[in-house]
Amino acid sequence: MMAGARLTAFVPPASNPSDESVLAPTSGQTAMVGMAGALCGMTSISCSAETAIKLASKMAGDEAAKDPAIVSDAMGELCNMVAGNFKAKITSLADHCMLSVPTVISGDNYVMQAAEPSEVLRVALDFNSSPIWVSLITQS
Amino acid sequence: MRKLKILIVDDSAVMRKIVERALRQAGLEIGEVLEASNGAEALVEVQKGSLDIILSDINMPVMDGLEFLKSLATVEAAKGVPVIMITTEGSEARVVEALSAGAKGYLRKPFTPDQVKERVSPLLVGVS
Questions:
Q1: SS3 A56
Q2: Is the ipTM, as predicted for this complex, more than 0.90?
Q3: pTM for the complete prediction?
Q4: Given CB 3.0 to 4.6 Å as the disulfide criterion, which of A138, B48, B58, B94 pairs with A41?
Q5: Fold type of domain A25-139
Q6: B112 and A CB contact within 8 Å
Q7: Which residues of A touch B93 (CB under 8 A)?
C-alpha cells in the first residue's frame, strides 16, 4: 500500500528453479524489527540492493531514493509496518508485545541467523519480478 | 480558498513524504508543510503558529508522540489545532491514551489516501 504495489508469491524463473540464491536472501538489504514480551522474535524483510532502491522510489520518489539513508529508512519503515500489522492481528499480542526500532543492514554475502529459533516462517513475494523475502522468526 | 499549513512529525523522512503525498492525494489544498523528526522539534515548529492540523507518529526518539501531545496543552499557538496520531503498533492502550490526551483521531500504517481524507477532512471544516 505504501509502495503502491500489490505483491504476489514470487515464482523462481523456470530456467533456475532450485538456485539457492533465488530462494533465500544472501545479499542486498535486510531490515529487522525485534519483538519482545508475549512473543519474542523478529520480523525481517530482505531484498537485493536494486529492489530496495525501487521500493524506496515508490515510497519517497526517485530523487530521494538516490540517498542510501532514504533507502534504508524505507526498508525500516516497511519492516516496521509488517511487524506492527502482524502484532495488531493477534489479539493477545497487541498490548503485550513491544517492537524494537528497525535495524537495517546492507552488503554482500551475509547470513542472518537467530539464536535458538523455535519457528521460522519465510515467504517470497514478487515486486517488479524481483523477490522480497518476509520472515517471521519466533524464539522459545 | 486558503491553503492549509500542516505539521508532520515522524522520525522517518520516508514516512513524512508518504503522509504529505497521501494528504495531497486526498484532495487537500496544502500551502505549507512543516516537518519534524521528533516531538521536541515539533514543539519548536508549533510555536511558529498558524497551523491547521498536526499529524504525528507515536514512537519517536527524544520525545515521543504521546509526550508531544501532552506538551501541546501548554502551548498557546497549539490551541484549537487538531492532532491526528499515526501509529504502526496495534496497542489499543496507546491509542486510547492518545485520544484521552487530546488527539482527535488516529491513522494506522499503512493507510490509503481515502483513509487519510476520512480522518482529516472533518477536522478541517471551515478552515479551507
A1: helix
A2: no
A3: 0.84
A4: A138
A5: Chemotaxis protein chec (3.40.1550)
A6: yes
A7: 95
